[in-house]
Amino acid sequence: MAHRRLDPDALGDHVDRLYRAAWALCGRREDAEDLVQDTYARVLAKPRLLRSDDDLAYLLRVLRNTHVSRLRSAARRPVSERPLHDADAATDPHDASEPELVLGARELFDVIAALPPAQRDVLVAVDVAGLSYREAGRALRVKEATITTRLHRARAAVAEQLREPLLARYCA
Amino acid sequence: MSDDEARIAEAIRTAAGAVHAPPGLHRTLAAQRARRRRRGRVAGALAATAAAALAAVLALAHGDGDPAAPPPTIADAVAVALREPALPAPARDARAPAFLRASSGGVAFPDYARGALHWRADGLLRARRAGRDIVVVSYTRYGRARVGYAIVGGAALRPARTRWRVVRDGTRFAVQRSAGATIVSWRRGGRTCVLASRDTSSEALLEMAAWQPPPAAGGRY
Questions:
Q1: Could you tell me if B165 and B175 are in contact, meaning their C-beta atoms sit under 8 angstroms apart?
Q2: B15 touching A, CB under 8 A?
């Protein structure tokens, strides 16, 4: 299969989706920003040759690998004081034009971040980042059938833990 | 897919779709990409003028400057510290994990990201002013605030003219505000060090300036 060079100028198109995915992976808005920055720094460090046309799937794989690396580094590091949780994040006008939706997103991302990693990664790839099952399979290097199974379990787990009013807000 | 599963999938997509990356993150990533493009252009220019570049690099390697020439000022170092970095951030030094693999005259730049300060190096800049090398590591915090940490090559510069002086752990720090920037300068290892930022408080800069590595990572800085 022919390779093509990843165009750094096109990476700006994926920032929002990667940010959502990062937030859902790590469960903290502040960590999500750092994670996306680290991901872009890693991708931009040298020219990248891709086998498929799907930049987002590739970026999502790098994002996930960067997240895992950061967790491993953090586990090796002496415990340090964590920054305070940003209590005003939900009403930050830069987050979205609809603060109520962001509040719901935070609750949702908390639940997703607490899922078992295999289920979480699939849910983030398909429902949060918007990849197809095939793209998600490529990004996570698992079969499509595995994506279907894990996604079903992940959605069921999220449904169990989310408050009913939150679901009703989006599914009325 | 059952109705229930479709319902939860829709809820997740709707909630996630309402979230957008903060403008600060967009700006930071755009700057990262711009730096990448500049690096590419610089690499091309270097290839075309290899001999001239080599001469320039050799000239830059000697950073102490002419002792008879007037030295740069703290203001020169501040101007360089506030510039956008042109090179990628230096990596962590595997042999001294509390520091980065960047230094000037034996004074290494701290890796603040390992401790409680949460400043992460995001770029490097090398400049020359009045015959002296100035090395700057740029640090960011949560993609919003930015601080430039400059170390000036050669003998220490004249201290900044300010009455605002703070002593921490026996080191004297000069604090100033100038042209919208907050500046902390001090001497370390015989070199002049400068921290400058347009969006960070003097207290936060002093915390960075007075940073010491943990005893297990090499003791006092």
A1: yes
A2: yes
Specify whether the CB–CB gap between B56 and B62 falls below 8 A. Answer: no
- pTM to 2 decimal places: 0.49
pLDDT tens for B177-204 read 988 899 999 999 899 999 999 999 999 9
Pairwise CB contact (< 8 Å): A19 & B25: yes
Give pairs for B16-19: CB < 8 Å, separation 24+.
B16/A20, B16/A24, B16/A105, B16/A108, B16/A109, B16/A127, B16/A128, B17/A20, B18/A96, B18/A98, B18/A101, B18/A102, B18/A104, B18/A105, B19/A16, B19/A19, B19/A20, B19/A23, B19/A95, B19/A96, B19/A101, B19/A102, B19/A105
Q: ∠ CA B190-B194-B196 to the nearest 5 degrees? A: 175
- Residues in A 73-112 with any Cβ partner in B closer than 8 A: 77-78, 80-81, 83, 92, 94-96, 98, 101-102, 104-105, 108-109, 112
Write out pLDDT tens, residues A123-134: 999 999 988 898
Q: Are A50 and A4 in contact (CB under 8 A)?
A: yes
- Where exactly are the structural domains of chain B? 62-217
Token digits of residue A43? 């991708």
At the topology level, CATH places domain B62-217 in Protein Transport Mog1p; Chain A (3.40.1000)
Ordered domains of chain A (ranges, CATH): 4-82+97-171 (1.20.140.160)
Contacts of B58 (CB under 8 A, 6+ apart): none
